[in-house]
Design goal:
alpha/beta, Rossmann fold, nine-stranded mixed β-sheet, 9 helices, 9 strands, about 35% helix, about 15% strand
Length: about 270
Amino acid sequence: MNNPILLIGKPGSSKTVFLSQLYLRLQKQKSTLKLYDQVPNLSLIIDALNELADGKEPTPTHSEQSLDFMLPIQSDGQRFDLICPEYGGEQVNQIIINRELDNRWKTAVSNSNNWLFFIRLSEINKAEDIADITPNANNVTPIPRDEDHILSDQVFYIELLQILLFYKFNDYHFKNAKVRLTVALTCWDELQTKDKPEDYLKKELPLLHSFINANWETNNWSILGLSAQQFRLTDKASQDKYAIEGPEKFGFLIDKDGNRTDDITQLIVNAVL
């Protein structure tokens, strides 16, 4: 019996890099996980695979691409499919704009009890502090008009989870014990912190942390740090390392206790166990 894992993330949250690195490790048998079947369609990551092999930063996935991407994974005889409906990250933004899911997302949410949620904290926008818009005797700052309002990423993530839970027919009278939620704080190398992933999320996005804690059973959610690329490919030395040693040699994961492992495939294990 397959257990689909739904991968969710905004544009630029490192989904493409992770999926490419994960596929390479599975293909080259650099993991305890295995592919139990051929990957139906590699078109959504083929450019990233080629760019990483050349030591280049992968180009973000085009928002108009809407093919499903699926990796058929097996671990100790158990099969589970990592799926990305409407893969272009920009289309995740459309969920918030439209306040609804299209049929492809509805099916993915309905069929999956394992959600892998990518958040890139190094590029989040935060809500404006009330002190910044409160007039005082010396400086009167106009209150922003509705058309100038920008939704903070913290509110975005909370609303996105609420919409997904709504289509999952979640009963808010009880903490969620049906859907396992794994939050991956991506591009962890950019954060330059020694905090545990949960502590860092609680510090940066406290309302989101409170929302998750209030709506999920304690043993049914976790927060990890992920650096699928390990470092930026902006200089020749870094590019050469990737081109010579191979992309699958790089990347690391920080577990909930703050321990590091170079086996990024453990993120998938965590998402289903």
